[in-house]
Amino acid sequence: MTVQGKTAIITGSNSGIGLGVARELAKAGSNVVLNSFTDRDEDHALAAGIAEEFGVTATYVQADMSKGDQCRALIEKAGGCDILVNNAGIQHVAPIDQFPQDKWDAIIAINMNSAFHTMAAALPVMRERGWGRVVNIASAHGLTASPYKAAYVAAKHGVVGMTKTVALETAQEPITCNAVCPGYVLTPLVEAQIPDTMKEYNMSRDEVVKNVMLTRQPSKEFATVEQMGGTVVFLCSDAAAQITGTTISVDGGWTAL
């Protein structure tokens, strides 16, 4: 599977899943555009490191994914777009009657609306270039629900719906649009939560992972960012040219329940 010479834009990619996806795409030969809302020296250094490690072009473009005009400007500033990976996202947990309105608005904007804006801006570019791949990082919560996550569940269900719509709109073109639905992925953010959870429950690391964090993940193992990236690379490859409008779950069996 190769994406040699393609240009890939990955939103929310200076850490976690987004960075893992960017690295796997670069490893497969794609030039990558990293993104987040910050604009620090270390963000640009991250891109430079990927370029040096994999021998591709890698740049960092700051854009706030809560703002539609910045989402669209990201596509323009990237200087090309063959592959679009919508990954940016945030989370907040609260009962719906106590859910802060500003948190609802931010989650819907960043997790769902940003994908609308980037896809709307990227599709004309892909059509001009005669090829395109859109991969939306949804969630197991795009297919099922959990309590206290109303905004996140709503946004991820919306992303899955948009994915299907765009796939139908591009079905007779050399463009595909799919969603990847991860369960729990071992990111630095998740890893950092484990010690506090061990103290809270007076459990070992393995007990916390299996009995607290992965209660809904039958495999009792985290997915890795490398596995997430590999799934995206597959969806961007020629092997997946007839896979469009669908979801691929990387959730250890969560949605099989």
Notes on the protein architecture:
Pfam families: adh_short_C2. It comes from Cognatishimia activa. Keywords: Oxidoreductase. InterPro entries: 3-OHbutyrate_DH, NAD(P)-bd_dom_sf, Sc_DH/Rdtase_CS, SDR, SDR_fam. By secondary structure, this protein is an alpha/beta fold. The chain has two domains: 7-185 and 223-250, NAD(P)-binding Rossmann-like Domain (Rossmann fold); 186-220, no CATH class. Helices cover 47% and strands 14% of the residues. Strands 3-2-1-4-5-6-7 form a seven-stranded parallel sheet, with helices on both faces. Helix 4 links the parallel strand 4 and strand 5 (132-137). The two termini are 31 Å apart.
Can you describe this structure in just a few lines?
The chain contains eight helices and seven strands.
Please describe the topology of this protein:
Blueprint: E1 7-10, H1 16-27, E2 31-36, H2 41-54, E3 58-62, H3 68-78, E4 83-86, H4 101-129, E5 132-137, H5 150-169, E6 175-182, H6 188-201, H7 205-213, H8 225-236, E7 247-250
Helix pairs in contact: 1-8, 3-4, 4-5, 6-7
